[in-house]
Amino acid sequence: MxxxxxxGFLVAVASVMQTSGNQQLSKPVACTSDLCHKVAREILSxxxxxxxxxxxxxxxxxxxxxxxxxxxxxxxxxxxxKQLQQLFDSGNYTNxxxxxxxxxxxxxxxxxxxxxxxxxxxxxxVRAVDALFGGWSLLKGNPNVSAFRLDDxxxxxxxxxxxxxxxxxxEKNDFTSNQNIMFLRMPGRLWERWGYCARYPAPCNAxxxxxxxxTFIVQHLLKVANPSVHWSTVRxxxxxxxxxxxxxxxxxKGKLDFLKRLTFGDLNKPPYRSHFLPRLLxxxxxxxxxxxxxxxxxxxxxxxxxxxxxxxELDQTMAQLERDGDAGLATLADWLWWTALYHYYLVYQExxxxxxxxxxxxxxxxxxxxxxxxxxxxxxxxxxxxxxELANAVRDAVLxxxxxxxxxTLEAAMDKLNHTLRNVGFPEEFxxxxxxxxxxxxxxxxxxxxxxxxxTIDQSNSWINLQKLSRINVRNDLFFPDDLTLVFARIYxxxxxxxxxxxxxxxxxxxxxxxxxxxxxRLGFAIGHEFTHTFDVGGKAWGKDGKPFNWWTNATRxxxxxxxxxxxDFYNNIPTKNDSVDGRQSLNENTADNGGYRAAYLAFTKxxxxxxxxxxxxxLEALNxxxxxxxxxxxxxxxxNPAPIDAVHAPFRFRVMGPYMNxxxxxxxxLSAGIPDEPAN
Length: 681
Fold this sequence. Notes:
mainly alpha; 25 helices; 3-stranded mixed sheet; single chain; 51% helix; 4-stranded mixed sheet
């Protein structure tokens, strides 16, 4: 099958296999090791050789795959989970920050599981929140909240990483990669369940669910904290809080998050000027001061608001509560007390998963321990070489083959690719200086009580978040810790750096042995996919240093727009089974898939030509290396579930059929032993 030159990234991989002028290779080397027999059995166990691969290559590769998710989720995620468990069960550590992580894990597993509503758990909840508020008048049966001071409470909540009515998050500035900016966010963690129900009301009734949970918890609290207070005396107050909470949680119903940039001075002008918003400047400065951040906001300080509707609704709500006098103040105090209570309730429940707890508290520490334990240095070096080869292959097989980029755009794309930072495995600068990581997590402390330890983790998370505001040079910065035990490569456009996590540098994605064909077909594809994103329609918005900069010329944009529907139509017309794809909605990811496979295949052919690499797997002798490459790559996406992982990715079947049908490595082509200099257009 021959496809038109669809966007240049996506031209055919190799229309013919020419032998003249190329190195002639020896016969394939039969691999008879135990490992080769194992991987061959795995390949054969998923194949359906009754299917004609020329008709349905995905069915040929995957019909006998028995899991509902792909290779990474089915094999690699459980493997990494087991490795992390073994890592902590070993008790081994080599430096103070690793010892702290190990101590917290041991303290966690030695805790008695009292249950979510045991007397001891409820007492812990009350003690934790009392430390912030000095007691909850609702539990005391006393509506007097004259001692309540919002200006004191909100900074304490932020300092303890509790998302109450508004949350201050420090994130990368979209306008420059060497600065950070404040974001005023609608709290998400505490409200996600009811917020989801509000957006999609059927089949859950969020109001009733939330009411039953609150009623159950508060009734238990009353029994333990103050049995003399009858439920009927607090029901009305609780229902007021419930309605307020639910109304604020549903502000985003039917709305998208469009980022609005304001200054604190803007909050003193219409339409924002009201009772509460002008108070945010001193409130947030108090939050920053409480965490010893060397930054003070002024009226000219910019901040981002992802959901302006929430901020405006909050302002009106606070104004109404103030007009309601003591009753409104009581409702506000009850609301904040509840958010803190529920935060600790969730923390205590999640703390049962001890490995995940330590990962959340000290992600770089755990990532480093994992890397040192399971990823040999030679494997990391091999992966770095592969990453470099894929960057070069993207340049040669994708960028230099484009016909829709003009010279100015092509030059900018090449420059951006050359400046893309690469984090492969684990950052080298930390391996020889663990004190940097130890200092980062200095706020995490092992206390006598496990629940006091949990509070120090919250305080550490908040401190790290706020400290980022005074940081500069934040491309791939220590204060943006990444969990490198995750199993997928990723690109960060607003920093222009690619991350290949330590967890991916092991089978079935990467092998240290002679199974290099797997490395190129699986991890090589993933790396090529992410590199392709640096200059696709999404990557065009970010320059080589990660700053917003549209480097496409008008001519390039027009050429792209004129051709993109060729690929959209191509995917929409791929033969389907019980699935379907929206070629327009998944266009960017389909582009990256095609670019990734094309780059991975070119890198593999160059590797063969450079090294004389040949391999033949037992039971698969009828396939040459080119066919084996595509089969190995295809089986990365085997799944019994026809649904995509999200709205922007095609279902797995199409992630195989698209690049395969858009290449000339087809059954109609007789493949020889020769390796072409370049894939042909």
